[in-house]
Amino acid sequence: MMDKTVNQKAWFLVLPVFLIVAFSAVLPLMTVVNYSVQDTFGNNQFFWNGVGWFKELLDPSSDLGGRFYASLLRNLAFSAIILAIEVPLGILVALSMPRDGWRVAACLVILALPLLIPWNVVGTIWQIFGRPDIGLLGYTLNHMGIDYNYVSNEFDAWATVIVMDVWHWTSLVALLCYAGLKSIPDAYYQAAQIDGASRWAVFRAIQLPKLNRVLLIGVLLRFMDSFMIYTEPFVVTGGGPGNSTTFVSIELVKIALGQFDLGKAAALSLVYNIIVLIVCWIFYTVMTNAGVDHTKREGAV
Amino acid sequence: MARIDLVDLAQSYSGNDADPESFALKPISMTWRQGGAYALLGPSGCGKTTLLNLISGIVTPTRGQILFDGKDITPLSTQKRNIAQVFQFPVIYDTMTVGENLAFPLKNRGVPKAQIDARVAEISELLDLTPYLGRKATRLTPDAKQKISLGRGLVRSDVAAVLFDEPLTVIDPALKWELRSKLKALHRALDLTMIYVTHDQTEALTFADTVVVMHDGRVVQSGTPQELFDKPAHTFVGYFIGSPGMNIVPAEVSGREARIGGHVIALQRSYDKLPAGATIEIGIRPEFVHVATPAPGLLLAQVERVDDLGRISFARVRIGGVKFAARVPQGFSVAGSDVGLVFDPGRVHVYADSRLVEGVA
Lengths: 301, 361
Hints:
Chain A is mainly α. Chain A has helices at 10-36, 52-58, 63-96, 102-116, 119-129, 136-143, 154-182, 186-194, 199-227, 231-236, 248-258, 262-289, and strands at residues 38-40, 46-48. By secondary structure, chain B is an alpha+beta fold. A six-stranded mixed β-sheet of chain B has the order 6-7-8-3-9-10, sandwiched between helices. The mean pLDDT of chain B is 86. Chain B: Its main location: membrane.
């Protein structure tokens, strides 16, 4: 066996990356860790608080813990609802897209439009669109006899935020699925025709299995995005009415910048971060195992 | 199970008004009898896959009709046509087990469960798939996948025909032999009409009892392997089938004589009424002409090389500018660059504009 050549120069190639990551990620994160174990009464005076903030955060009976769990539940519910709508809807849109010709280009452009709009603009669009006095949607609904007001009614606020997210992001799922569908060879459809498969059987036996991987990526992206959603609901409802649309990130900003409770906010953001990491890890594990047959290969059939 | 008739069937991918010479399939009429084993043989792009897809309904013909047992099924969709097709690349439904894959075509047609089970058992037995029926159809070798595809093609007992579109392309050469003889056995066991598309003459000649040779969108000849070898109806069949292919040499033919550059070759039949203005050629298979020591009365040729194929050797020679192959008799060694050619008169065919001309005895 040959020994590897020793070459310490390689460190110079890795060093810039270390520096950049340290400067942009590790050091800022450490300041957050630093804040999370201290208390301050302003004037740049800090006192050691140990794991006090974390204890309070994870204790549902405290004010901080109560707000954290409530916003976390709301956030999970929100993510679950938009995933349950956007994934099937995205698949449906992708399935009904034309297969070739200029119509494909037209559809792709139209689908890409919502994705190109800045998030606060999306919020503003829906904030105005839903207003009962001057918004087309709010005005129309109210004149149809539906009492719709996202400022005062919790259900209306939720509905508006969800519809807005569906409007904004279904395209992403649809585009991913469209790419997945495009990669299925024609032979599969021809074989299914020969086998007499119904439209539904074609979907179950060919299209859905082949979409597996892009769907997993789509779900991951949409979960992450909806789990850290801030701008759009903040612009439309400001987290209200009451706290009914206050998601974790909105709560976090309230604590950090509204109350200037840096210790509590730091503890919350670290826990938030850990949840995101865990979810990512779960997705990663599922994705790398997807399609892997655990039964041993029994040689040639 | 049915007889399949093609009536003036033609296909153009650029519409009915396109130049007829550009058609992927020029108008053909022919009959496929029930229970036959057919091979559609031709080079890539000759229209054989188009013809197959027309029969299965994946492609709708530009012109003409397809009849199953005399019934016009041209407008019917693939699902309603009662046809099975196996594709070049195996298609496997990999969320299902091997057994579910085989049952899929029957299940889709609402066949009762007991009947499905019986038929799947029968087909899996024939294809040696029985031990794997309960296994998920993922991570299989290409030949295992293609066996499952074949199984799905064969599982329906009531199909008008089973079409194979170069199904052994992805299979290892060693397994090709095995699967091909398996198919042949299945044909005998199941009494199905089978149409097998290939560009490999060995595959075609070993599988089929009728070989249909296609060239440039036309069927140029259909017959038994022996007929194709002995009496090619078209110069294309002559050199596409056989290894090496038939020798085709421009010649002047009148009566019972063919003239190549002043040299006269005797013919067994008389050719008096050759079409005027046509290009006249004679064709003879290398097996039926042998080299000899140059002598008066023999056509003289220049040797380029000798190919030793084991049991038989062929000399590659030139007559003027035309390449020619001829058998080297056992024990004969080519000395010098010139040889004489000895023709078997009964095996010399005359072609006018590439088509065989029948002589008068």
